[in-house]
């Protein structure tokens, strides 16, 4: 592969507004773009950021157009805080900002979203790369769920998503705990027993697979 992570400097990000399907919300997405060639869109995990893709982008950007899409997953409005909602935002972004089908690269939750977009909108997807994708049924975050998640519980659950927990960043854990605590204080957060968006979307995704097989 080309490029070196030690010499790569990420370009500044820009903010792009993406409309929800019902037109009620405009979500501010943080987008970083670098390189030229076939379009490759990078989708982060539930507590991820565009920054997490830097080492990969450093190596591939001489050969492809890297588009890093960062949606505020922990701050999404309740009615679009689901796999379906994020997949719709993602496909809308691709249609409105790219002039060609793109390779979707998804990590964890982002991989699940990439799978759904590829199934529902194959005309805008030229390829699919899954990195530790959550698959069709993500059990880790919804098992023994806490309405007001403690830092210890969240550390355990996020850690289950890593093959090597040494790569789990304390800054990401703190950010997720702070935001989920805030959401639980003002209402329900996605994945709680009273908010079945994630599991419902996963089940629908599985049924979609079966209909297409």
Question: Topology, please?
Answer:
Elements (H helix, E strand, L loop, with lengths): L13 E6 L6 E9 L4 E5 L10 H7 L4 E6 L12 H15 L4 E6 L1 H12 L4 E7 L19 H9 L10 H17 L10 H16 L1
Parallel strand pairs: 3-4, 3-5, 5-6
Antiparallel strand pairs: 1-2, 2-4
Helix pairs in contact: 2-3, 4-5
Structure description:
The chain has 213 residues and is α/β, with parallel strands linked by helices. The protein has one domain (14-212): Alpha/Beta hydrolase fold, catalytic domain (Rossmann fold, 3-Layer(aba) Sandwich). It has 6 helices and 6 strands; from the N terminus they run E-E-E-H-E-H-E-H-E-H-H-H. It has helices at 54-60, 83-97, 109-120, 151-159, 170-186, 197-212, and strands spanning 14-19, 26-34, 39-43, 65-70, 102-107, 125-131. Strands 1-2-4-3-5-6 form a 6-stranded mixed β-sheet. Helix 2 packs across helix 3 (109-120) and helix 4 packs across helix 5 (170-186). The longest helix is centred in the last third of the chain and has 17 residues, at 170-186. It starts with 13 loop residues before the first strand and ends with a helix. Mean pLDDT is 78; it is low at 136-146 and 188-213.
Instruction: Name the helicity range.
Output: 25-40%
Number of domains: 1
Question: Globular, elongated, flat, extended or rod-shaped: what is the shape?
Answer: globular
Q: Can you tell me the CATH topology?
A: Rossmann fold
- The average pLDDT is 78
Going by helix content, strand content and strand pairing, the class is alpha/beta
CATH class (first level) name: Alpha Beta
Which runs of at least 5 residues are low in confidence (pLDDT < 50)? 136-146, 188-213
Strand content: 15-25%
- Which radius of gyration do the C-alpha atoms yield? 17 Å
What is the H/E string? EEEHEHEHEHHH
Q: How can the largest sheet be summarized? A: 6 strands, mixed
CATH architecture: 3-Layer(aba) Sandwich
Count every beta strand, where a strand is a DSSP E run of 2 or more residues.
6
Q: Name the CATH superfamily assignment.
A: Alpha/Beta hydrolase fold, catalytic domain
Order of the strands making up the biggest sheet: 1-2-4-3-5-6
Give the count of helical stretches. Answer: 6
């Amino acid at each position: 592969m080309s490029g070196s992570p030690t010499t790569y400097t990420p370009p500044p990000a820009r903010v792009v507004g993406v409309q929800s399907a019902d037109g009620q919300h405009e979500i501010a997405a943080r987008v970083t773009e670098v390189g030229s060639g076939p379009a490759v869109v990078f989708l982060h995990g539930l507590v991820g950021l565009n920054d997490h893709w830097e080492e990969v982008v450093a190596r591939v950007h001489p050969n492809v157009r890297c588009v890093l899409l960062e949606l505020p997953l922990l701050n999404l409005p309740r009615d679009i805080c689901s796999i379906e909602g994020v997949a719709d935002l993602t496909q809308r972004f691709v249609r409105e900002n790219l002039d060609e089908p793109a390779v979707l690269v998804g990590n964890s939750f982002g991989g699940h979203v990439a799978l759904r977009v590829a199934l529902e909108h194959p005309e805008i997807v030229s390829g699919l790369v899954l990195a530790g994708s959550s698959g069709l049924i993500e059990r880790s975050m919804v098992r023994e769920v806490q309405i007001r998640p403690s830092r210890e519980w969240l550390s355990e659950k996020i850690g289950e998503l890593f093959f090597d927990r040494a790569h789990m960043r304390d800054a990401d854990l703190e950010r997720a705990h702070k935001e989920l605590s805030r959401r639980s204080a003002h209402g329900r957060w996605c994945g709680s027993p009273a908010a079945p968006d994630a599991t419902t979307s996963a089940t629908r995704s599985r049924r979609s697979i079966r209909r297409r097989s």
